[in-house]
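Internal tracking record. Fields below are filled automatically when a chain is submitted to the structure queue. Please do not edit lines marked as system-generated. If the sequence contains nonstandard residues, flag them in the REMARKS field before resubmitting.
Queue: standard
Priority: normal
Entity type: single polypeptide chain
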Amino acid sequence: EWPGRVWTWSLLPGPVGDDVFGQLDGILRALDRCGVASTGVLAIAPCSLPNRARGPVVTVGFDEVVGVLDDQLRRHRMRRVPRVNLSADWTVTERSGDRQRDRTAESLLTLGAGGLGTRGAVEETRVGVVPLVVAAGVYTGSGPAEHLLQGPDWTGLAFRCDIDDDTRTLDLRTGCLVRTGHAVDGPVHTIRFVSISEPGVMALRAEAAAGDIGPSALFRVPPDAQVTTGSLTTSREWARASSDRGGGIAAVGQQHVGKDGEIRTVERIAAYTWDARRRPRVSSATARLERARGLGFDRLFAEQRAEWARRWEHVNVVVPADPETQLGVRYALFQLWTNACRHSELALGARGVSGSGYAGHVFWDMDAFVIPAMCSIDPPSATAMVNYRLARLDAARAAAAALGHRGARFPWESASEGTDVTPREAQLQGRTVAIRTGLLEEHITADVAWAAHRVARWRGDIVDDPMSLVPLLTETARYWASRVRVTSDGQAHLFGVIGPDEYHDAVDDNAYTNVMARWNLRAAIAAAERTGGPTAETARWRQLADSLVDGLDAVTGRYEQFAGYDELEPLVMRDVAEPPVAADVLLGHDRVAGSQLIKQPDVLMLHHLVPDEVAPGSLAANLDFYAPRTAHGSSLSPTVMACLFARAGRTRDALAMLRMALRLDVGDTTGMVAGGLHLANLAGIWQTMLSGFAGVSVTRGVLHIDPRLPSEWPRLEIRFRALRRRIGLVICDDCVDITTDGPVEVSLSGGAVRMVEATARLCREESPKAKGH
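SYSTEM-GENERATED OUTPUT FOLLOWS
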């Protein structure tokens, strides 16, 4: 009678009083903490209950209660698909029918944990369905052709007909994917999840009329993959995909096919293990499977719910006046967690573990976008991403030496070894075009150093020796010191580069590249002199940093994007098309390259990443000039602009840009989501909320809060990690309530620094000595 609800009951022998309300209320609050909304709880009792009890309440007798228990025990015993309490505040739903949209949905409904991901493809085999299992950092192939290895897929089922009214719902609160529909003889239900409590374990249940579903092989073999398979028992199978680089992905699975009356059920548990360099052992996957089978599906799912509840308790956002934005930000957080990993190193490509776009290569997206987000969501994952770069420092040194330079030069596209795997050409509209980013987009070297420094800063470490921050800063600074050219007037230049705005290549003195190089030199000076004092080398770095051209017009406060940019055709986007749009495709490469149109906010990235390196008060002038010229032809673009509009107090513009970013993946506005989610965009969405609207930053071990809320949001609640603390903020117009699980120094809106031990109310007008509560 109440499908999809969680049932609780209280058996009371005597009169009903306030103690009954207390008991029920305690149960419901406990369920809330475990991720079950109180509005979806059905309380059952054998006596009347006070109206004050929260949630729907029904009075029934003992026989009815026993009947409920019997039914739940039978469903457990028969391995039926559990009902999940779905709430609109926590779910993303896709309905099948449009085959092109189905490919997008596969990416949107991705599940993952620990660096292993599985796309949300439907269980049946049909034209256009592309199931995918990949592990971050496990590649095959070589050079530009190196790509993520596809592992054995565990989700295939033998449905004997098409499924109508097909609906798939991703439940963010519990980390599961639920499917409902109808086949010839009756309804179809499936549920799957990737365990976050048991690394590498995935579980699935399905049920349908016996005539609509039958037994199937445990694993589907990806095309063009080197896969070996075998059986361990009659119900247990294994499969292993091998990389030609020595690594691989192995899986062992077991399934049970049963019946409950006319309903056939399938329960499947699969356990994976993977390694980037060595062939993974099937025995390791078997050991994981043994533990998972010992726990059983229901226990695994219960632990899954509890672990996700803990995640959402520590990192979350609540925007009471804007549930659509709230859901979009929660979706971004969910998919970032899907890519989180506590391994020693983590290589995240532009699409993470949600697809094979860009072959899984690692770009600056990871350093400039994903790492800053992970610092406040899952700090060990941020550290693991920095470790990926540190482990390839020797390859970066070799790349610099090959070009006749000192220090370390990081590649534009990286994979297993840290060598440059950027393609040199591509096909565009039927013609071959050269790709020069690998040769000229050198700002990534400073971006890598900046990301490592960011992790140390958010941890509260000035120099994080275990992460070898000093060698990284030193080697990247040495590269810039040997790369710059000093002209007779004493000015230092960087000639022939590509900035983040890739519509203009081989330019001189790109402001973003030059200022990031300057930041890199100064950060290396501070780190080196902190540990060893001034040297001749640091003195030269200081001189170069001070003389690097940055394109600033001291009168207007505007930075020229690169030398000669102001002489280009002064096109703005209102003359061309409504962003977001790929302006180079619309107008042609040559027309765009000769104009002031830009792909993404190149100069503005400096105000976003290194605000202390730009002229004070220069944000507004640069926003006014570059925002109308930005095509947002990159998925990285909208959230940067949203953050900066918020910091400039232009909250309505910020909200408009945030909503553009929220549509980018869910609405597939680029038409590219079939290849995987845009991980940097998802990271940028979270950064817009935390750094933009909430105004949170960390400097020298102090948490700074400077909110800028849109008028549409009278209240914002946000929880995050910083300075080794779990922190919660409730932001209103005139005050901020803060909670923390340990002492932390805090400053509100540039005011005095104060120590917060547990909870405090900070008001902009209050004196520094005002007491917390």
